[in-house]
Amino acid sequence: MKNKIFIFFIAIALILSVGSVVANENIDDGLSVDDEIDEIQEVGVNNQVQEDILASDESEEDLSYSDDVDEIIGSPAYVNNGKVTNRYADGVIYEATFYDSEGYVLKDTSVFCGLDSKEFGYTGVTDSNGVAKFAIPAKIGNHKLYLISAYNIDNPVIDDINIFKVLTGNKNIKMYYDGGNTYSVRVYGDDGKPVSAGEKVTFYLENKKYTRSTDKNGYAKFKITSKPGIYQIGALYKDYAVLNTVLVKPVLKQLTTFKNKVVKPKIKFKVKFLGKNKKNKKIKVKFNKKTYKAKTNKKGIATFKLKTPKKVGYYKVVVSYKKCKISATYAKYYA
Q1: d(CA 92, CA 35)
Q2: What are phi and psi of 6, to 5 degrees?
Q3: Distance between CA atoms of 164 and 240, rounded to whole angstroms?
Q4: 17-30 tens-digit pLDDT
Q5: Could you write out the three-class secondary structure of 92-138?
Q6: Any idea of the CA torsion for 192, 196, 200, 205, to the nearest 10 degrees?
Q7: Extents of the domains making up the chain
Q8: Is 91 in contact with 163 (CB distance < 8 Å)?
Q9: Of 48, 37, 103, residue with least CA distance to 75
């Protein structure tokens, strides 16, 4: 009987021992499975994040999200460096795009553009695309712009710009009629260098426009052939324009002064040509319904012998050279 009881306890001990081993094996297997589950979950999360990023990239345009949000001193880039969109005599128009802290465009918001300083500059308001325009008057040369919104007051985005004139060399002109003078401009490209040959420039004079092309040095020229008068003349290249004044003076000068008493059958009448290349200029004189012609000598003087009118009265003499005309009135009396 004692032997049977002893054997029974031995059997129970063996069963418990085997159960313990099985339990331990099951526990070990359970930990391993959990670890694998964690791994799988972690991989799944990473894949999901990647999918979310790809989905975000595909929908950037719809979300107006910046596709090149950089980091500035550990912070998101709240401003994309802008560009000069127009230049004029005393400065530029500059545009930049502003973003909030999440990288979305900053709409309908007041922003600031400092000129060579964070303290001095110009304010603007962003549009629905986050773009703000600034009219910046500045001297010729290199300048720094400090672009600031409420999101980057401590870390402004800094952009370098070069102020230069797109059209140069233009100036007011004083000239004699038919002097062969030209109004010229030199055109500069976005790189600040003279453009090559073939760039189109439009000139405006007397409510008419004329197109000329630049030469290899970037110059465009327009010859002025207007009759005497004062005019405004302009040049336009793309959106850049300049405006000047042209004074065209009469090229003829009357040298003879008529006297009150004229008794000779012929009146000696002289005119001087004031422009360049004075010799052999064809001058006309209209007097008492008759036209007289003469050429200038090397000093630019043309001499006419006008027939004296028979009647007492006032007569007008008109001197002309191409489109240039001058006139004078004199009184004639018999002795």
Answers
A1: 63
A2: -60, -45
A3: 12
A4: 444 433 344 334 43
A5: EEEEEEEECCCCEECCCCEEEEEECCCCCEEEEECCCCCEEEEEEEC
A6: 70
A7: 36-63, 71-163, 167-249, 252-332
A8: yes
A9: 103
Q: Which two tokens stand for residue 113?
A: 């553009």
pLDDT at 280 over 50: yes
Q: What distance in Å separates the CA atoms of residue 84 and residue 113, rounded to the nearest whole number?
A: 13
Q: Buried (b) or exposed (e) across 151-161, using 16+ Cβ within 10 A?
A: bbeebbbebeb
Span 74-78, mean pLDDT? Answer: 57
Closest C-alpha to 89, from 234, 257, 300: 234
What's the token pair of residue 205?
A: 């004079």
CATH topology of domain 252-332: Immunoglobulin-like (2.60.40)
The pLDDT confidence band at residue 110, using thresholds 50, 70 and 90, is very high
pTM: 0.61
Q: CATH number of 167-249: 2.60.40.10, 3.40.630.30, 3.90.330.10, 1.10.10.200?
A: 2.60.40.10
Nearest residue to 304 (alpha-carbon basis) of 252, 261, 260: 252
